[in-house]
Structures are given as C-alpha cells and as structure tokens.
Design brief:
The complex is a heterodimer of chains A (406) and B (282). Chain A has twelve helices and eleven strands. Chain A has 406 residues and is α/β, with parallel strands linked by helices. Among the domains of chain A are: 26 residues, no CATH class; 155 residues, no CATH class; 86 residues, Rossmann fold (3-Layer(aba) Sandwich), CATH 3.40.50.790. In chain A, the strands form two sheets. In chain A, strands 3-8-9-2-10-11 form a six-stranded antiparallel β-sheet. Chain A has a four-stranded parallel β-sheet with strand order 5-4-6-7. Chain A is globular and about 95 Å long. Chain B has two domains: 61 residues, Ribosomal Protein L9, domain 1; 149 residues, no CATH class. Chain B contains nine helices and 13 strands. Chain B is elongated and about 100 Å long. At the A-B interface, strand 1, helix 5 and helix 12 of A face helix 5, strand 6, strand 7, helix 6 and strand 8 of B. Strand 1 of chain A pairs antiparallel with strand 8 of chain B, so a sheet runs across the interface. Chain B: This is Large ribosomal subunit protein bL9m. Chain B: Belongs to the bacterial ribosomal protein bL9 family.
Chain lengths: 406, 282
C-alpha cells in the first residue's frame, strides 16, 4: 500500500510558483513523498478452527439446498415465489386464527357469509348447494364431476423435515367415470396373461426381457402413468426401482399381486390422490382429487370422501395434530366451494403413535438440558449479577475510562 | 374542525393540555445488598450500576378493563337507552361519555336514571327499535346488485329458487325461499331472452319475518361453456334514481314491523308498493 501526502509540499510548490518560476516545481526536492505502508501480515491471518468449521457448514448447507430440487424445479420455485403460493390461490387457505373475532352461528335467517366464521357443512348439504347451482335453468351441468380440495399440514416429528410429495391410487367403494386417461404398463412373464392383461385395460404388457431394455434406455417408461406387476416378476423388476421411482409396483402401493385383473381395474377406476407440498410454504400442502359426480347418491359420494380422507390421513402420524386443515367440495368447472366437516373421519392416534411423538419431545428436552448444563456451570463459575459484582464492574469501567482519557 | 385544531395547538403552546400518562415498570439490573438495620439506605447515585434498570412492563400498552356505563340514548351495537352495559374502556372514555351519550354506572346515576326509566316507561315501549343484527345485514344488502344467473341455452322462468342460488353465489345465505318475495312482473320473466340481459329487477328479502329489505337484481345469462360468456359491463356503483327509472324502478327503503308478521303468506310486494306511492305523494 502506497500513499502519497501532497498537502505540505504542494502548498510550498504553489508558493514557489507565485514567487519564482515553474522550473522550481521540476526540482525533485520540491515534492516530498511520504509512504505509509499497510500491514500485510493481517491479510495472511489464518482462520481459526471454529471459523473454518462455520464456513464449511454454511457451504454444505448451501449445496444441500441447491441439490434438493432440479434445475427446472428451482426456476419454477423462483417464479412461484413471485406469485401467490398454491395454497393461497383461490379458494385460499383456511386460517381459524383470522376468524376469532367473528361470531360462530348466524343470528338471522338471512346472513352474509363473510360476517360469520367458516360454516362447515355435511357432505349432503354441500352437494345440495352444488346441485342447486348446476340446475338445468342455471349452469345446466347436473352430472358435473365433484372435486375435493384438501388443505394439508405437512409437518412431521422432525421440525426441519416436511412430508414429501406422493402419488397414489385409492380404490373407492363407488367407482365413477372420471374421464382421465391412465396408461398402465403391466409386467408379467406368462404370454397368455400378457394378452389378457391388454384386454383388461393395460396399455402394454411386457416380460422379463424388457427389463434390461428399460435399464439401457431402449424402452421408455415415461409415457406410462402406472406400472403393475405379477408376483412372479417381483424379483425381476427390482433393478427398475431407480427408473420407475414412485411408480415402481409394490404391495404397499397395490401394484404388485397375483390377480392382475383386479389390480388393473383398481388402477383404472380408483381415485388419483396426489399430495403436493407447497413450494413457497413447505409446512402447507395441497391435494386435489375427483370424488364422484353430482348425479350420484349422497351416500355414495360420502363413502368415497371417507375412503379418500382415510387414505390421505394414513400418510402422517395422527398424534401430530390434524393433517387436514380444511376440505372443500367444488365442481369442475366452477368457482363455488363449500367447506365440509371431515372431523368424524380423522383417525384417532394410537398410544404407540402418541408415544413416538412424545419420545421425540422428551429426547429433545433432555438434549437441551445436557447442552445447557455445562454452560450454566460456567456462568455460575464466572459471576453473578449482584451489588458486589456491580461494584467491581464499576471499578473496571472507571479504569477503562481512565485509560481511554489518558 | 379547524377551530378544534387551533384550540388544541394553542392549548399545547400554553401548556394547558392534559399530559399523557405513561407508566413503565422497571427492575434493577444489579440488586443492591439489603440495607443493614439502623443504617441509612445507600443512595443509587453511589454506584453507576445501581442506576441500571431493565423494563419489565410498559403498562400503557395493556388494555384497561371494561367499563360499566349507563346509556343515555339508543346506541347501535351497544344497547338501548337507560341500559347498564359493560363496554371497552376506549369506547366509553373517548366516545360515549365525552359526547354525553352515556355516563359511568355510579350508584347515584343508576338510581337516578333508573327512576327516569320508570317515568319514561310508556314512551320507551312505544319506540320502534330495529334489532342491530337486522340493520347490520340490511345495510350490506342494500349496497349490492345481485347478478341473477340464468342459462343461455335452456328455457327458464324466474322463480325463487333461481334467486336463492344467485344470492348464495354472491355470499348471501338464506335458510329457505320463504324469505324471498318476487313482484308478479319479475316472476313472469322467462327466457332465454338476450334483450333482457343486464335488466335491473326489484325483489325483497325478509329478515326474521320482521324487516323487509328491498334488493336489486341484474339479469345475467350464463353458460358452463366459457366461450359463450356474455360480456356485459360490470356495475361499479349502485344505480342512481335515473338508472332505476330506465327499468321502471324507484328507490325504496327497508320496512320494519315489531310484530314479525311478514311470513310467506303476507302480501309483502303490495305493502312495499303502497309505501312507495305514499313516499311519492309526500
């Protein structure tokens, strides 16, 4: 670092310009150059172990956050953050805390919905209101598909971990025509079965020989929404776990079994339940599914709703609190929504599940105590804020002040 | 308004304005040793640290407890004249008591106004008092123009059911169609008839069989097919007297009956027509 101080010499130089001539400026003694060198040693200061660790942890955290989503997902998230989160988009997310001031029950026979707390209806009440609106004299769509939107709480036992997205087919007691195209890929070794499976509704049936092709990339599986497999192929398809990911047929998702006809039927007529976490607010989630049609009987739709809600709730420990924040019934197309009361279908937490949550809490509390103990001891060893220590403090302060003034 | 402001500023300049009370509860950061018996207390100026205080509570932030007052006149949402009610301290002190619409429920005042209430008993009973809940709902209802949704392909004839559904779509819930009253000229309208699109209609809602609220509807042909939607200009404000006259309508006021007699069989439409004529004559 080089710094030149011109002030003194330059005034002297100007004076010389005034009195004599410019030539004096050219003389070397007219300009005095002072150098102040900075301490380079400070730049080379080594990092302490704690600082290094801190930097490494930060870097790792950044990298982990980057790896969580793919490139396209990250771009999508960035775009979505500028917009409203999916949970906040119409019809929004129900927040009971915002309605504490409002009265719960209507005081008159005519009332305005916004002036009251959200009224949770029974399924048949909500359906009756939708049927009124879809009457031939109004919207004229008496066979409209009924959509159920579930607002979810995605927290888990771990505070930092949220529930992941999932896709599944829920077999419903009263199947209906959903007009969705579902392509199914069936794995079976028996050639006779392969023919039958296509007849039953699978898009394609393949045997053991195709597994290698899939692995090599000669056979694309992206075009198939679901995969089912006969039990005799259970071992053969194991290498495909990484390729098929969530579509990989297992007994848990109902894709693997002996009766392929029943499995395919279930996949074709069941309700698609996709739980998606909110990208902007990861503690929230959403799922949209079609539960029936308006022309169906109330009991049938109610039974379907019950099955779907039970299937959705099985994803999360009920001891953590309600998984479903609010369930609303809508029609496709249509903007009207009616919240329904689903509390009676929510699962009761078993003792085991409650224990699991509490264990975690006690574990954490114990950890905190252990962490705190040594530090507390240190503090106690150091000082206690009393008048005596205060006096000492004051004396120290005075000394310091004196040294500063000196 | 200006006078008030001038008065306030001059009062401030003269130092006459009431000072605002602020109360902090503080705690010493360093507790001094207890004073030995027979000795004087150690002055806090003795040590610098003894003058260090931490805030425990800022009392001004706490909401004061509710105040019991006697109302000296009917006040909406609070109560009727001579009623003893508990209200928020802020409302009582800054509004009701200052404007002499209420007084503190002191034993003397309770006795004094109790006697006055007895004296004015007949007058108070004869007074027409519209319940606050009815007024609250009606005030919002008269500010709305309800789109009356009818299908643009299928045949329809206006009925109470269509009105009920249209009201529900706008966020107004009605327990049954008995609370809706349609004039005969409205219930005669049938369609689809695109000449009637955006026509203003008058209908009535009756709150608890006691309070008739005149409402405005606007015919709107709709379809499930979005490509078929009719784009009629939205109403940004309530139609004026001139706008109403174009559709053969007049401004009307809500009507209240103490006896809650406006049931489904009551000729509500005729009553409102009579009231309108009376108003026109006066």
């Amino acid at each position: 670092m080089l710094k030149c101080i011109w002030s003194v010499s330059s005034t002297r130089a100007l004076g010389s310009v005034a009195c004599s001539s410019l030539s004096s400026l050219l003389q070397p003694h007219a300009v005095e150059v002072t150098q102040i060198r900075g301490r380079k040693r400070a730049l080379k200061a080594t990092l302490t172990k704690a600082q290094k660790l801190e930097r490494r942890l930060k870097r790792e955290e950044r990298e982990a956050a980057r790896k969580q989503y793919t490139f396209m997902e990250r771009i999508k998230i960035r775009r979505m953050k500028n917009l409203l989160s999916p949970s906040q988009q119409y019809p929004g997310r129900y927040e009971a805390e915002k309605e504490t001031e409002l009265s719960g029950r209507p005081a008159t026979n005519v009332y305005i919905r916004n002036m009251l707390k959200t009224q949770f209806l029974t399924v048949s009440e909500a359906l009756a209101k939708h049927r009124d609106l879809q009457h031939p004299m109004i919207y004229n769509n008496p066979n409209a598909p009924i959509r159920m939107r579930l607002e979810l709480n995605m927290t888990t036992e771990k505070t930092t971990k949220m529930m992941s997205n999932s896709d599944e087919i829920v077999p419903v007691p009263f199947p209906f025509k959903h007009n969705e195209k579902r392509t199914i890929l069936a794995f079976t070794n028996d050639p006779a079965m392969q023919e039958a499976v296509v007849e039953w509704g699978a898009e394609m049936a393949v045997g053991q020989d195709v597994v290698k092709k899939i692995l090599k990339g000669h056979f694309r599986t992206e075009d198939y929404d679901f995969c089912v497999a006969h039990s005799d192929m259970a071992h053969a398809i194991l290498p495909l776990r990484g390729v098929l990911r969530t579509r990989f047929p297992t007994k848990f998702n109902g894709g693997l079994g002996d009766d392929l006809k029943e499995i395919i039927e279930r996949f074709r007529s069941g309700v698609k339940l996709a739980i998606k976490s909110d990208v902007v607010y990861p503690i929230w989630g959403l799922t949209d599914c079609v539960v029936g049609r308006l022309s169906m009987a109330d009991e049938e739709i109610e039974a379907n709703v019950e099955t779907i809600i039970k299937a959705a709730c099985s994803h999360r420990n009920p001891a953590l609190g309600p998984f479903i924040n609010r369930a609303v019934l809508m029609t496709i197309p249509g903007k009207e929504f009616y919240p329904i009361d689903v509390n009676k279908w929510l699962p009761e937490p078993t003792e085991e599940e409650i224990e699991r949550v509490e264990k975690r809490k006690t574990k954490k509390a114990a950890k905190k105590v252990v962490e705190r103990k040594p530090s507390e001891e240190d503090e106690e060893g150091e000082k206690k804020p009393t008048a005596e220590t205060a006096e000492e403090d004051d004396e120290d302060d005075d000394d310091r002040r004196k040294s500063v003034t000196a | 308004m200006l006078g008030k402001a001038v008065l306030r500023t001059s009062a401030r300049q003269l130092g006459l304005q009431q000072s605002k009370r602020t109360t902090y509860i503080l705690q010493q950061v360093f507790q001094p040793a207890p004073t030995p018996e027979g000795k004087g207390q150690r002055p806090p100026t003795d040590l610098h640290s003894l003058q260090k205080y931490a805030e425990v509570e800022y009392e001004t932030d706490n909401e004061p407890p509710p105040v019991k007052i006697i109302l000296l006149e009917d006040i909406e949402g609070v109560g009727n004249q001579f009623e003893v009610v508990e209200v928020k301290a802020e409302l009582a002190r800054n509004d009701l008591i200052l404007s002499k619409r209420a007084s503190y429920a002191s034993p003397f005042d309770i006795k004094y106004y109790g006697a006055m209430k007895e004296r004015m008993k007949d007058e108070l009973e004869a007074r027409v008092r519209i319940p606050y809940e009815y007024k609250q709902v009606a005030r919002q209802l008269v500010q709305m123009v309800i789109p009356i949704n009818v299908n643009m392909d299928n045949k329809w004839k206006l009925n109470k059911h269509i009105f009920l559904t249209s009201l529900r779509k706008e966020g107004i819930e009605i327990s049954s169609t008995d609370a809706i009253f349609l004039p005969p000229e409205v219930s005669a309208i049938a369609g689809p008839n695109f000449e009637l699109e955006a026509k203003l209609l008058r209908f009535y809602l009756v709150i608890e069989k006691a309070y008739i609220v005149p409402m405005l509807g606007r015919l709107s042909h709709i379809s499930i097919d979005e490509s078929k939607q009719i784009l009629a200009p939205q109403l940004t404000k309530l139609p004026s007297r001139v706008d109403l006259a174009k559709h053969g309508l007049f401004p009307e006021e809500p009507v209240y009956s103490k006896n809650a007699e406006f049931d489904a069989s009551y000729p509500v439409v005729d009553l409102m027509q009579r009231k309108r004529l009376e108003a026109a004559q006066t």
